[in-house]
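Dear colleagues,

As part of the handover before I leave the project, I'm documenting each prediction I ran so the next person doesn't have to rerun anything. This entry is a single chain, and its sequence is reproduced below.
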Amino acid sequence: MVPFPLHGRQRCEGLAAIARIKGALEPLRERADFTPNSTLDALTGLGYPAEKIRSYQDGPTGIGFLIDTYPLCVEGTMGRDGTQADAFGGYPDHAACDRPSGGH
């Protein structure tokens, strides 16, 4: 269940995506707007299609999100203490960004 790391140009694209995402979510975090709809609006404002974004409540003051623009995937959380995000290249044997269930 370990995702593929990004290398070269894809890594640069992933780091740039993380910076844009953190910038878009920071105003929400500062005003303690921890709702999935606000997060979705901020991320679609960056040009990501709504159907490629999953945002979900992660406790009372936290949001989790996954942007599935495979082969570039960005997953993270936003909460009172900050926004964390990681860019990766999907999972083995699974052409998408969500974590596959089951196994071999």
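The first strand starts at residue 53 and ends at 57. The first helix runs from residue 8 to 30.

All the best with the project,
I.
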